[in-house]
UniProtKB/TrEMBL annotation:
One of its GO terms (molecular function) is beta-glucosidase activity. Keywords: Glycosidase, Hydrolase. This is beta-glucosidase. Belongs to the glycosyl hydrolase 1 family. Gene3D superfamilies: Glycosidases. It comes from Peribacillus psychrosaccharolyticus (Bacillus psychrosaccharolyticus). GO terms for biological process: carbohydrate catabolic process.
Amino acid sequence: MKFPHDFIFGAASASYQIEGAWNEDGKGITNWDVFSKIPGKTYEGTNGEVAIDHYHRYKEDIQLMAEMGLESYRFSLSWARILPTGDGEVNEKGLEFYNNIINECLKYGIVPFVTLYHWDLPLTLEEDGGWTNKRTAEAFVKYAAICFQSFGDRVKHWITFNETVMFCGLGYLKGAHPPGIQNDEKKYFQATHYVFYAHAKAVEVYKELRQYGEIGITHVFLPAYSVDDKQENVIAARHANEYETFWYYDPILKGTYPTYVVEQLKEKGWTPDWTEEELNTLQRNAEKNDFIGLNYYQPIRVEKNNTVFSSMEHSRETSTLVPGSPSFDGYYRTVKMENKTYTKWGWEISPQGFLDGLHMLKARYGDIKMYVTENGLGDEDPIIDGEIVDVPRIKYIEQHLKVIKRAINEGIHLKGYYAWSAIDLLSWLNGYKKQYGFIYVDHQDNLNRKKKLSYHWYKAIIKTRGEKL
Ligand code: BGP
């Protein structure tokens, strides 16, 4: 069986991780420009000043994507290139850069799939409280409207936010992302609420413009499974799904927050300050979402946390989803299991976990259209006789595409797959060592690009529409 004719094969990236040119052509400073330079925050102090210099090499990069047969390219816009202070004047050079990217994609028939927010926030807004301040939400809506008006004639696929749980969780609970705050649950939930509110308003604005494209949100999908049949562990897994998944999709798709979490937040004093107007905005726009994006890398295996919970030990390593730490509320703990397979960075490889998770989403949210907006293997790729022989990546993607095919057959409404990532790029906390791309970037040799084995493999998959998978 081939993949359906309207299923899209793509690959993804994000502005901060590829562009570089951090202070060129009027771009404003972002939270990440500052945070990544604080000693100890990133792997070997890596930052996005140059990244892989996509800002200057985008033509070559998109040409390589085209040659691979890529049908769609998911990339993000840097808010601060377009609005250097977040909600002030527009920087025409910023618009020009993204017009160039979009036009270059269209030249080859590559469908641009645009993420508005992939974590790089104009510093002005961060310094004014970032996502805990409603100003940021209002500013986002203004920024989104400018993007719809500037690019919407050619861009018909929009993602508002990438992985709210990550930038809010790592930003306000673990301190591993900007603004680097630890253990502030109140701020964490407040920030998530303003993100959902900003999303709902942006969706409303988009629909009012009648551009006849589609819009949705992307979350990291971490379906939780109990390590065994013990009731307390089963309950712990349910708790994890409520907090890690339903909190993120319910306000988007149902327009209300999950009661289970809401009740507990009340008891703990963590309820966001929300107004009727904000809650109505969520409700009013829930049905206007065209799709949800899922970034799937791994499930989480969960058991009840029975050790006494004090304050958490945070490190850069434990902030990157390696199993073995308690949840922020101390209720459960993620576990590394003997009988599972893990990547070099400790992430479980489980296509089956994805399939089961997709059915869980369908049971809760019905037939909403879904895209896999990220999936891939972070690895240190072997180089043999000058060739990048990334066989484990091929295997990883192959296994996941197989379950996606199965999911479609089982009635899951999945319409596209975006591998993370199109090209090797800067990992937020893991530098350039953790590679994901189909295209290799040589940091020893002038950032030269080279096709990996997976590049040729994916090209063949796209060409044959995955018939042999
Ligand atoms: C996702 C992010 C991506 C990317 C990916 C891999 O959460 O949306 O931007 O970074 O994870 O993460 P890492 O680089 O930490 O392996």
